[in-house]
Amino acid sequence: MSETEALNPAVSIPDQPADPALLEDVERLGSQIKAARAAIGRVIFGQQEVIDGTLVTLLSGGHCLLIGVPGLAKTRLVQTLGVVLGLDAKRVQFTPDLMPADILGSEVLEQDESGRRGFRFIPGPVFCQLLMADEINRASPRTQSALLQSMQEHKVSVAGHYHDLPAPFHVLATQNPIEQEGTYPLPEAQLDRFLMQVDIGYPDREAERAMLATTTTDATTEPVPVLSHEDLVTAQRLVRRVPMGESVVEAILTLVRNGRPETSDLPEIKAHVAWGPGPRASQALALACRARAILDGRLAPSIDDVLALARPVLIHRMAPTFTARADGVTLADMIERLKTTVG
């Protein structure tokens, strides 16, 4: 056994055949996720890649940033996910006057029947299992920062007291890529806490036709529960047990480290990237590759998973230089160049 395998046996394919119980659990989870995909697809039309990307994020235990113009069913997707996956879902509309206490909650002074006074904590909407942060970049940096601790540590601190959030806890945030007036760009520390960025495009003609036929009549389709939140927590633990080959680990490290101007072997990355992905990108890719494999009915991730997930995992963790902007070089172009180093 190699030194890497000895330090972390979950990273590489074990020498012995896979545990039959693990294979059975993975196959069972694959069937459950297939049923969940079908249930979501009956409500959300023409967005299969978006559905898959969101499910990969949730199976990985992470948070997702949804980028798309209004009217592409972002809110409907979050509501549907809450029902299908058995999660307690809440929505917060981010506005410039939104305060941290409007998200986290606050302590109020109360007096009991004996006249004794004390503070009681009133939880905010963040105390849920699936939080939709709608148009997250419209709130001030102070309010945006209120989510940092909850997204990373799954708890919040109010008036010096810690309060644990429910498990599981996920944030699905939305942004409008067109209307940027009156917005505040998300800081790099918060962007890094999103496991994936999923870009939502327009549906194709047939999907839009089905949408018209379904949503403009009185015969509406409502989501139905398929999993419970306990099932999702179990699935997230199972994803972390899926073995991953050394070649996939090396592909992840090559991709991420070449995306950093300080360690890249590519001159164009050194010239066009101001800052690159940190260690969270490697962790996110490892988890997302495992989850994508299960989503596709496979028992182990491959390099194809790394290549497919490179853009959604890396694009919000990199920033172009002024030279890149002047030359018309986009982050998508640079990620495509990074993918050529893997294989």
UniProtKB/TrEMBL annotation:
Keywords: ATP-binding, Nucleotide-binding. This is AAA domain-containing protein. Gene3D superfamilies: Magnesium chelatase subunit I, C-Terminal domain, P-loop containing nucleotide triphosphate hydrolases. Residues 63-196 form the ATPase AAA-3 domain. Pfam families: AAA_3, AAA_lid_2. It comes from Roseospira navarrensis. Residues 271-336 form the ChlI/MoxR AAA lid domain. Belongs to the MoxR family. GO terms for molecular function: ATP binding; ATP hydrolysis activity. The lineage of its organism: Bacteria, Pseudomonadati, Pseudomonadota, Alphaproteobacteria, Rhodospirillales.
